[in-house]
Amino acid sequence: MNLHEYQGKSILKSYGVAVQEGIVIDKVEDAVEAAKKLTEQTGTGWYVVKAQIHAGGRGKGKVQETDSNGVVLAKGLGEIEDKVKGILGGHLMTAQTNGKAKKVNKVLIAQDVYYPGEAETEEFYMSVLLDRERGRNTIVYSTEGGMDIEAVAEHTPEKIYKEEIDPRVGIQGFQARNIAFNLGLSGQAFKEMTKFVVSLYNAYVGIDASMFEINPVLKTSDNKIIAVDAKVTLDGNGLFRHPDYAAMRDVTEEDPTEVEAGEAGLNFVKLDGNVGCMVNGAGLAMATMDIIKLSGGNPANFLDVGGTANAERVEKAFHIILKDPNVKAILINIFGGIVRCDRVAQGVVDAYKNMGNIPVPIIVRLQGTNAEEAKKLIDESGLNVHSAVLLQEAADKVKEVLA
């Protein structure tokens, strides 16, 4: 589950991570009051207005209605309302929104942390994630903060460092010091960075996150280390331990079809292909997508109906798959272990009749308990449903109906 910047920062702050302070608003008329309150809290006189959407690259992105960037600087209270008007309620497109603009329902008014001082400011990159191959949590960091980390990896990979952390013992002091040393810090900034790294890692573990990305981590001109941005992704499997974080979910930032499927208890991910998939079991779903690809089609979705593929559940899955106008065929691939194949077949027939005319051909492959009875039910239904027993047979039928 992805969080907005302001939500991620609030969690980080609760773990002792120093962050750029800010106040989130959803109405233009609240902008000036929020800015005044922020000045009282931090003493800032300039304000950074940030669009709150689940995407990076907001500073370079454009709001379609106003041509404003998604992150702008207001040099005083006199500018704050106009800057907010240029973003709030508009549709922001960035390099990470997949060619579609996202509506900005909230903006964060944040303190200006690039204030003058004796030393220059420096920007770093830092992320925490799980290296599944190594079985270790890993802190990835670089001196090239504020930039696209993929570009840094491609052109100057020597500027990217990794610190592996054994989850059994947690982060050690020498590891935090090693990170601060590689970032070229000394004195007070060195001490501040070691504290920052330890607090950041503890937050990552404590909230069951799957990824933190802080870009940039800023060394201010007075040697403070703070998170200027925060991209936080929570592990959905751990949300039962964090109901307060689960309540932070913003469904307006998610695909509405995926939200509907989740509410129905279906595991669904929308893809860009032309063959809808309805399968029981994640592993079988992956194999089904492979066989669709090999047959000349492209999977339009990942959909796992689970172990209770009854008529109601199958009908709901049909509705969700058919919301995609690109779907030209549907492949149902069920292995009858916990669930009997004949019950699934009856569910398909009942769902088909309840929905009326389904405009695309359906291939049903049922294998396992009562598979023969299931095939007979499908074949004798009189509906535009093609039955198959072998996976290759199902693939051949997909190729046939797409021809």
From TrEMBL:
Residues involved in substrate binding: N280, G337, I338, V339
UniProt xrefs under Gene3D superfamilies: ATP-grasp fold, A domain, ATP-grasp fold, B domain, Succinyl-CoA synthetase domains
UniProt-listed Pfam families: ATP-grasp_2 (PF08442), Ligase_CoA (PF00549)
EC primary class: ligase
InterPro entries from the UniProt entry: ATP-grasp_succ-CoA_synth-type, ATP_grasp_subdomain_1, Succ-CoA_synthase_bsu_CS, SUCC_ACL_C, Succ_CoA_ligase-like_bsu, Succinyl-CoA_synth-like
Cofactor, free-text remark: Binds 1 Mg(2+) ion per subunit.
Entry-linked SUPFAM superfamilies: Glutathione synthetase ATP-binding domain-like, Succinyl-CoA synthetase domains
Alphabetic keyword roster: ATP-binding, Ligase, Magnesium, Metal-binding, Nucleotide-binding, Tricarboxylic acid cycle
Pathway this chain belongs to: Carbohydrate metabolism; tricarboxylic acid cycle; succinate from succinyl-CoA (ligase route): step 1/1
Coiled-coil portions: none
Residues annotated as binding ATP: K50, G57, R58, G59, V113, E123
PROSITE patterns xref list: SUCCINYL_COA_LIG_3
EC number: 6.2.1.5
Annotated ranges, domain ATP-citrate synthase/succinyl-CoA ligase C-terminal: 278-397
Biological process (GO), any one: tricarboxylic acid cycle
UniProt keyword annotation of Ligase present: yes
Gene Ontology CC terms, in alphabetical order: cytosol; succinate-CoA ligase complex
NCBIfam families: PRK00696.1, sucCoAbeta
Function: Succinyl-CoA synthetase functions in the citric acid cycle (TCA), coupling the hydrolysis of succinyl-CoA to the synthesis of either ATP or GTP and thus represents the only step of substrate-level phosphorylation in the TCA. The beta subunit provides nucleotide specificity of the enzyme and binds the substrate succinate, while the binding sites for coenzyme A and phosphate are found in the alpha subunit.
PANTHER family xrefs: SUCCINATE--COA LIGASE [GDP-FORMING] SUBUNIT BETA, MITOCHONDRIAL (PTHR11815:SF10), SUCCINYL-COA SYNTHETASE BETA CHAIN (PTHR11815)
Known partners and oligomeric status: Heterotetramer of two alpha and two beta subunits.
Protein family per UniProt: Belongs to the succinate/malate CoA ligase beta subunit family.
Name of the protein in question: Succinate--CoA ligase [ADP-forming] subunit beta
